[in-house]
Every structure is written in structure tokens, then in C-alpha cells.
TrEMBL record:
This is Bifunctional protein GlmU. Residues 262-483 are annotated as: N-acetyltransferase. It comes from Tsukamurella pseudospumae. Its cofactor is Mg(2+). UDP-N-acetyl-alpha-D-glucosamine binds at residues 10-13, 24, 81, 86-87, 150, 165, 180, 238, 343, 361, 376, 387. GO terms for molecular function: glucosamine-1-phosphate N-acetyltransferase activity; magnesium ion binding; UDP-N-acetylglucosamine diphosphorylase activity. Residues 7-220 form the Nucleotidyl transferase domain. Homotrimer. The lineage of its organism: Bacteria, Bacillati, Actinomycetota, Actinomycetes, Mycobacteriales. The gene is glmU. Pfam families: Hexapep, NTP_transferase. Pathway: Nucleotide-sugar biosynthesis; UDP-N-acetyl-alpha-D-glucosamine biosynthesis; UDP-N-acetyl-alpha-D-glucosamine from N-acetyl-alpha-D-glucosamine 1-phosphate: step 1/1; Bacterial outer membrane biogenesis; LPS lipid A biosynthesis; Nucleotide-sugar biosynthesis; UDP-N-acetyl-alpha-D-glucosamine biosynthesis; N-acetyl-alpha-D-glucosamine 1-phosphate from alpha-D-glucosamine 6-phosphate (route II): step 2/2.
Amino acid sequence: MANGTAVVILAAGAGTRMRSKTPKVLHTIAGRTLLGHALHAAAGTRPDHLVVVVGHDRDRVSAAALGTADELDHAILVAVQAEQRGTGDAVQAGLGALPDDFAGTVVVTAADVPLLDTTTLQELLDTHTDGAGAAVTVLTTAVADPTGYGRVLRTQDGQVTQIVEQKDATPEQLAITEINSGVYAFDHVHLVSALAQLRPDNSQGELYLTDVIGIARAAGQLVRGDHVDDEMLVAGCNDRIQLSQLGREMNRRIVEGHQLAGVTVIDPESTYIDVDVEIAQDVTIEPGSHLRGATVIAEDAVIGPDTTLVDTEVGAGATVLRSEVHLSAIRENATVGPFSYLRPNTDLGPRGKIGAFAETKNAQIGAGSKIPHLSYIGDATVGEGSNIGCATVTVNYDGVNKHRTVIGDHARIGSDTMLIAPVEVGDGAYTGAGTVIKRDVPPGALAVSAADQRNIEDWVLHKRPGTSSADAAQQAIARIDEQ
Ligand code: UD1
Ligand code: CA
């Protein structure tokens, strides 16, 4: 396989500056880990082999890497770098995961460069393999402040000769603003031979992958620099400040992508959209909205302001106003909010309504049914065209177990009905206001349980004398007596 391709993603470093018990590459932006972003970009080039080099926290990092194989639809190989002896040593470890007869191009990248995309990696691969016969092609960019990066040294006619690390550079070299992104394409044969020649004779005592470039040049090989203008594509994440900056930038790019595809986003700065969210044309996203996870929104829906949707499906023309929704479905032309909380497994049917201050959970609500205000509907099935009066509660929990409430089609549940589950209200049945339902209500019946009202005359005057209530009552009674 002379023209095989492999991508090696370096993820063995400690990530000390994150100051976290979570490995750096498992921190997330836009709903995906840094490692996940790197894997998605790499898998997009459909390499023959995709290798992740792990070291620090190797159990967690390798489990996370292997766990993405399904969504990537690509096999992942894990290589262990036992000790972090430098990037050259890490690549050496990564090559160990490739089959013995591998030949072709090895792309090396890092797991903490989340904005690097498939397009850029593919361009690097295409440049490297365009027939010029380069041993190495290194992705470079120009930055205003190159502190900390390896500097790219070039000849007068632009050929890359060497990369010098910050800690090993002369003052003149430190003034160079073209930097090594840490992303490269290597010819496998040359890479193997150059790695064998690395020595830790530098200020950090490490085996520098960057020395492969000087070694290739010294052997008369061609080294090319592939310059990208957009420095964010190759920006790394070392601390939580950069994590937020990269997150903001990725969000900006995601929002712009949706805008260009026909989504109205009123205020991109206050709108957060995870990378996997799908939004159809002519959806409107109002300010302060957070669209997370596997959320899917159909056309003409209006989301927000101030709404969070997590793993939620919203149908065409539906509206969700100032509400929080998790793992639920809101079908076409349904309305939710303001100020409601839909917990997992709520399914609100077409044209249905969950209005203000309602909470639902594990509830299937049929087409056109309404829960307009102040209710809790949990572990329940509601048929079509039913109305649930204000302040209705499905009393689903007996302190030990949860029970279901079933309400039929076209039922009318009176305000402040308590439905003590398990219980069933038939099609077309009514319940009176303030009813406590303990037994099933047959279709078409009216259920009432409140006792007849009794007024105990002058109770306040006798039992609460001297209070403002008693004073007010006394004055009112006097006025009635005068008439
Ligand atoms: C490296 C480059 C530098 C470049 C910069 C870009 C070298 C010697 N220098 O520097 O020219 O400008 O990246 O960000 O390569 N890693 C391992 N095992 C190790 C050491 C590192 O897997 O033993 C991994 C890290 O987890 C990280 C990547 O390699 O993902 C880069 O390592 P890091 O220590 O950050 O390299 P820099 O010093 O930043
Ligand atoms: Ca780094």
C-alpha cells in the first residue's frame, strides 16, 4: 500500500495549565470534547488508519477516543506513549500502531487544536502529495504574538529549513512571527528514519518532532511549508482562557454557518449552538438561546428568547418561549412557554400547548391538547383535544413508586384537579374544579369530590378579634346593615 494514509493525533500530554482533574483533551466546547473535534476533523479525510497517542490519564482518554468510533464510522487505534519524552517520541509510539507494511503519508496533529477542520487537513494532504516529493509538509501560520511556539526558518526562496523552539531560539529567531502549528504531513519512510536520529540535546531534554525537519533538509530532502491565513484553525488550547476563546470562536463559526443556510439568528453573541445541532431554513432563534446536544429544529419554528433546548426535537412552525426543554419532542405548530420546564420524554403533539409555569416529565400529550398554566404533568398520557385546567397535578409518586395517569381524548380537567395515580379519565370526561381523583372516571362522566361549601358566619370576628381582617369585616358588615 504505497500511498496509504494515516493520521496520528497526539494526546499524551499532561495539560497541566488547565488545572483540572479532567484530562485537557476531554474538556468540551460546542458540545464536543477537544479530542472529539480532532477526531472528527481527522476522520473526515477518511484515512486508512486513525491513531490516538495516549499517555497521561490514558484510561479515560483512550476510552473516550474509542467511544467515538461509532459516530465517526471509523476505526480508531490507540497507542500508548509510556513516558512523555517529547512530541518525536509520541509520534514514534503512534507509528507502532500501524501495520508493518504501511507505506505512504502520515499526518500528525494534536488533540488540543479544536478548530482544525477536515478541509484544512485535506488541503495539507493534497499539497504534500501533489508530486513534488516532499519528505515533510508543515502547516504554518503567522501570529501577532509567537511566544511559546516553534519558529519556522526559511531560505531566501521560501523553503523551510528548520523549526526552532522558543526555549532554544536566538533573539533574531524569536522575532520571526511565522510559527509551527504542530500539524504536519510526513512521508512514512523519511519519518521513520528521521525519528531514529532524534536526540534530546535541547533545553527541554525532549525528543522534538520538529527536529525531523532539520534532519530531512540535511539529508537533501524537500521540506515544504503550507501557510494558513486563518490562525484560529490551528490555535491550541492550553488553559481555561483559551478554552473559552476557542469556544466563542467555534460558536461564532457554527452560528454563521446556520445563518448562511437560512436561519435567522437575532443576536449571535448571546446564542450558543452545539456542533451537532440541526436547524432547518427559516427558523428564528431569539437572543439568549442555548441549543445543545442532538437538538433538531424544523422549518419556521421560533426559539427563544432565553430558551435552552437539550437533545430536543422541535417540529415545523412550533414556538418555544423562555423555557427549558430536555430530551423531548415538540411537534409541529405546538407552543411552549413562557417559563415552562419540559423534562425528559415529554412528547407534545401537533398544535398542542404547554403554557406558562408548567412542568412535564415522561408525558405523551396528544394533538391539540392544552396545559395552559401552572400544572405538573408527569408519567402521564393525555389524548387529543383535551384541556388540562390551571394548577392540575398528576400525583404520580406514592413515596416509593411512580404511577401513570391516563387521560382520554377531549377530556376537560377542571382547575386544581389532583389526579392520584394510577388513575384513568375516559374520553370526553370532565372533572370539577378542586376535585381529587382517586378512582377511574368513565367516558363522559363528571367527577366531583369537593364537599359542599359551608360558611361559618362571623368566625373571624370571634376567633381573630382585633386583627385587620376582623376590622375590615366589621366595617363591611356595618355597611350591609345600613342598607
Ligand atoms: C509543539 C511544537 C512547536 C509548535 C507547537 C504548536 C515540538 C517540539 N514543538 O510545541 O514547534 O509550535 O507544538 O502547538 O513539537 N505530546 C505528547 N507526548 C509528549 C509531548 C507532547 O503526546 O511527550 C502531545 C501533547 O499532548 C500535545 C502535543 O503533543 O497534544 C504538543 O505538545 P506540547 O508539549 O504542547 O508542544 P509545544 O511545546 O506546545
Ligand atoms: Ca502546546
